[in-house]
Specification:
Layout lengths: L9 E2 L3 E6 L5 E9 L3 E6 L8 E7 L10 E2 L2 E9 L5 E9 L2 H25 L1
Antiparallel strand pairs: 1-3, 2-3, 2-5, 3-4, 4-8, 5-6, 5-7, 7-8
């Protein structure tokens, strides 16, 4: 399957709440990576591609405050079983309030700046 991501992904080891829109079923999932357009998570439950959901998560390291909580609507675009019985889900953000999108972008930019600076310092 060809790679369709257009943005830099960064590690995102945090707990997220995923709510399936048509049933209201709530799942706690573990974040793997994030970009400005979506994220990868791991879960014990299969969530089929095409499923519309909402997410709720706090940006790691962010101080408390409304901008630190991210609550996008999203769509599961990929579901892949793992060898240990879990599922890797690719989730694409459908809508995120502008202030939350800006907070996520700032988080990603700061991480990229920090890691690129560390790479340059080692070179």
């Amino acid at each position: 399957m060809p790679e369709r991501r257009q943005e830099e992904r960064l590690p995102f080891d945090t707990r997220l709440m995923l709510v399936i829109s048509d049933t209201g079923r709530m799942l706690t999932v573990r974040g793997l990576d994030v970009s400005g357009s979506g994220l990868g998570v791991i879960t014990r439950s299969l969530v089929e591609p095409g499923t519309i959901c909402s997410l709720r998560f706090r940006l790691p390291g962010a101080s408390t405050g409304r901008a630190a909580i991210i609550e996008p609507s999203a769509e599961v675009v990929r579901a892949q079983p793992t060898d240990d019985g879990h599922y890797l889900l690719g989730i694409s953000f459908a809508y995120m309030p502008p202030e939350q999108s800006a907070a996520l972008r700032e988080y990603i930019d700061a991480w990229l700046e920090e890691t690129q600076g560390a790479r340059l310092a080692r070179a």
